Each structure stands twice: as C-alpha cells, then as structure tokens.
Amino acid sequence: MKRVTLLRILVILGAIGLLEGLIHAGIVPRFTIIPPSEMASALAAILASGKLKVDIAVTLTNVAVAIVASMAAGVTIGTVLQRAAALRRILDPLFATYYAIPMYAFYPLLIVVFGLGDVPQICIGFLLAVMAVIINTLNGLDRVPRVLLKAARMHRMSALRTALRIRLPYAAPYIFTGFKLAVAYSFIGVIGAEFITSSRGIGYEISFAYNNFDNRLMYGLILFVLALVLTVNMSLHAWEKRLMMRRQR
Amino acid sequence: MSPVGGDAPVHVTLRGITRVYPAQAAQPPVHALGPIDLDLRQGEFFAVVGPSGCGKSTLLDVIAGLAVASAGDARFEGQAIDGSVPDGIGVVFQEDSSFPWLTVHDNIAFGLRELGRPADVVQAKVKYALDFMGLADFAQAYPAQLSGGMRQRVCIARTLVLEPRLILLDEPFGALDQQTRLLMGDELLRLWRETGATILLITHALDEATMLADRVGVMSARPGRFLEIVTTGWPRERDSTIVADPRFGGLTSRIWTLLRGESLRALGHTGVRR
C-alpha cells in the first residue's frame, strides 16, 4: 500500500475515533449526533431487518434511471452540438450559467406535469446530471486532433463512422469524467428530491426519521448513503485513472 | 542507376495545379501554390523540399484528395483526383496520428477492419506489418507507452497494411532526432523496395531528401513552384550510408544553393542576390 493511501486511511480513522471519543466523553451531546460505532450497528440492523428494502430499491432504481438517461442524452446532445456550431454559439452562455439554476425550484412544476410518482425525482437527478455529460462530451470532442480526422478521411469513413470510431473513442476519457459527475449529481438530485415530496425512498426515510427524532435510523441511513456514494465514486475514479494511464505520454 | 527511368509508366500527373485560399474578412486571397506540373513515375521515390509555408503540404493534400485544387488537373493512375480520397493512396502525416485508445496491433488493423476484411486476413497482414516495422514486441502496447519514433512506425505500418500503390509522407520524421531519422529513412527505403510503391516524401531536411529520393523537387517560396527537379541517380539498393558517397555533398549543396534565396524570401528578406 502506498504511503499516502495509508496516511489517508489513518486520517479518516482518526477523525472517526475523535468523534467517537468526543461523544462518549459527553463533549458532543448524543441527541445531536450518535457515535460512529452506533451508526454502523444501526445500519447493520436496518439492512438485516429488511424493512427499508423497498425504499433502497426505489432510490437505487431512480438514481440508475437518471444516470443512464443523462449519459445517453448528454452524449447525444454533446455530439450533435459539437457539429452544429451556430446552435452551440447561441446556447453557450446558457450552459455557462446552467448550474446557477436551483433545480429544486422546478419541483412543483414537475409534480404538476408528472404527478407524485418517481418521475419528478428522476427528472431532478437527470437535469442536474445531463449538463455535466454535455459539457464534458463537448470538451472531449473539441480536442480531437485534426490529424486524426484527416486519417479518418484517408480511410474514407463516413461522418457517422468517424464519430463512432474516431471522435467518440478519442473523447472517451473526457466523457467518462462527465459520467462520473453524472453519477454523483444523480444521487444528489434523486435523494435530495425525495426529501421534499415523496412517500418512499432513502431521502424520504432520512427526513421521516429526522422529524421523529429517530437518530439511530437517520444516522444509519446517512452512513448508508455516504458509504454507497463513496464506493461508487471511488471505483469510477480508479477506472478513470486506468483509462487515463493508457493515454499519458 | 535508378531502375525508375523515363520508361516507367506515369503514376501521378499534375498539370497547372494551383491553390488559392479565398479572401477572408479584411484579408486578401492567398495564392498558396502553383502552378505545378509534375509526372511521378510508377515506383519512383520523389522528395519535395521547399521553404516554410511554400505549399508543400497543400500539394500533398491535393494529391491525397484531402484538398481541392483551385485550378489545374490532378490524376492518379489516369483517374482525376477531385477532392475525394482515391483508392490506393496512403498518407503518413507529420503529427502523430496513432489512435491512443487502441493497442499497436489494433491501430495497424484499423483500416483493414474498416474495409471489412476477414479476421484471418487481418491477422496475417498485421503480423507481417508488425514484423516488418520491428513492432512485434509492442503489439499489445498503447501508443502512449512508445517513443515518438515508434509511434511514427505504427502510423507507417497502419498505412502499409493497406498496400497503397502511392504513399505520401508529409514530413514524417520531422519530430524525430537525427539518428532516429536516419534509421527510419533506411526502413522507408526498404519498405519502398519491397512494396514497389511510388513514394512522395515532403521534407524540410535537405540531406534526407538527397539520401532517400530518386528525384528531388525544389520548390520556391509561396506561391510554391518547382524551381528545379534534381535527379540523384542513386541505385535502388541504397541506405543511409550513401551520405558517405562523394556525390552526396555536391547534390545536397546544389539543392541548398537553389533553396537559399527562397528560404530568405520566405523569412521576409528581399533583394537577396542568388
């Protein structure tokens, strides 16, 4: 194991240990936060009981739908925009300010349009995620060296073949960065939306536990979300690093 | 003597090839090239040298079908080249054009797979090209793991497997150090002899042109025209040791004499006596 990895683990364990100590010593009151060891045992109990099986499945499904939809739409829109310079010039300032828009403000509208089901949550996740994919797809496609496009012409490839076999593969590491962000934004969007108006899902259960002063359930679920998002993102990060390693000159 | 004499059939014909870049906002049109007249004979090794910006690469692009001439007639094997890439022409570019997401093997197989060749044919041809270019040990490596010279070999191999009858090289060794360039020159000569292809090499290195080519076309500053075509008269069996031939220095200095004034002109000097 690398020294820096070891140090990183030590820092995290140290912080957890410190929190644990502060709570047990009574410096941090228990009704504010429960000790990390209790969060872990609460999470184990939640998972073992199976009573939140449906909520977890609903959240994960909605997140997955938001991720897949934002990836597919983002790459498609990015690819089309990269070839449509005029349209891109019109939209560019809107892209730059996109993340200034508080997506959750559209929640009432989404409920009016789509009803109280899963679609509004998925929409928020999608709206947050898709722009990251579009921007990174554009960034990758803009970097394709001219000489590779000349090579494509020498192979007498059609525009579609060139996109599929040259442009997109070249842009893949950049698009992957977009995917990584899309995963994070989808989790944020869906779980955040579940807090506001939803009758199921992890976000709803956290908010429900909070309103009922059920600290064990609340912190157990927060730990669950944290562990899940960190695991997913760290695996994607490792994969991204492998992809980039091949390219580094 | 060179076996490519005046009796070999004409492979590429250029008549009055001119390229003018149209006027752009506040800029007048730029006469970049020509008129160029040239006959390349089948199996000939022809080099083009000229000052920077004289339109050498534009000339190559016109022959490759990557650019359309503003005027004139370009033919490859008797067929007009009209802005689409003709079958049988391969190009090696100055910049690294290897595909960074593919292994060396898959880079070389790329064109054959695009043409839908059967897998066993692809395998056999790629293996031959890997061996020929000394890349067999690197078949599974990615371009990023290779040196500049090795990456350029990958690009040559990728062109070679398609068995082009005309190979156009646009300063392919420009980014390489001198020793690597000499060795790559040897490999290019070997490739040329074994494939029987016609080669047009664009280079800014006079010694490279003299060493490799049967004939060297010396171009003027922009708009590029042939000032003179120098015949080297080397035997077909030759390699980089030809630089020790007593005639080598004379040929190179002849080309430099032709080129010196033009290069100064390209740099913005005027009124230089030649």
What is the gist of this entry?
Chain A is an all-alpha fold. Chain A has helices at residues 3-24, 36-49, 53-83, 85-97, 107-114, 119-142, 146-154, 159-196, 202-211, 215-247.
Tell me what the structure shows.
The complex is a heterodimer of chains A (249) and B (274). By secondary structure, chain A is an all-alpha fold. Chain A folds into two domains: 1-33; 40-248, Orthogonal Bundle (MetI-like fold), CATH 1.10.3720. Chain A is built from ten helices and no strands. Chain A is globular. The model of chain A has no long low-confidence stretch (mean pLDDT 90). By secondary structure, chain B is α/β, with parallel strands linked by helices. Chain B is 34% helix and 23% strand. In chain B, helix 2 (104-114) crosses helix 3 (119-132), helix 2 (104-114) packs parallel to helix 4 and helix 6 crosses helix 7 (246-266). Chain A binds chain B through residues 145, 147-148, 150-151, 153-157, 161, 165-166, 169-170, 172, 246-249, and chain B through 64, 66, 84-85, 89-91, 93, 95-97, 99-102, 110-111, 114, 142, 144.
Features:
heterodimer, A: 249 residues, mainly alpha, 2 domains, B: 274 residues, alpha/beta, six-stranded mixed β-sheet, four-stranded antiparallel β-sheet, 7 helices, 10 strands, globular
The best one-word shape of chain A is globular
How many angstroms does the end-to-end distance of chain B come to? Answer: 31 Å
**Could you give the order of the helices and strands of chain A?**
HHHHHHHHHH
How many extended strands of chain B? 10
Identify the quaternary structure here. heterodimer
Largest sheet of chain B: 6 strands, mixed
- Low-confidence parts of chain B: none
In CATH terms, the superfamily of the largest domain in chain A is MetI-like
Task: Give the C-alpha Rg of chain B.
Answer: 19 Å
How many strands, which pairing sense, and closed or not: the largest β-sheet of chain A? none
Strand content of chain A: under 5%
Overall 3D shape of chain B = globular
* Strand proportion of chain B: 15-25%
Question: Which ranges of chain A are low-confidence, i.e. pLDDT below 50, for 5 or more consecutive residues?
Answer: none
- Provide mean pLDDT of chain A, rounded: 90
| Alpha carbon gyration radius of chain A | 22 Å
Mean pLDDT of chain B: 86
| Structural class by sheet pairing and helices of chain A | mainly alpha
Query: Looking at CATH, which topology of the largest domain in chain A would you report?
Result: MetI-like fold
**Helical content band of chain B:** 25-40%
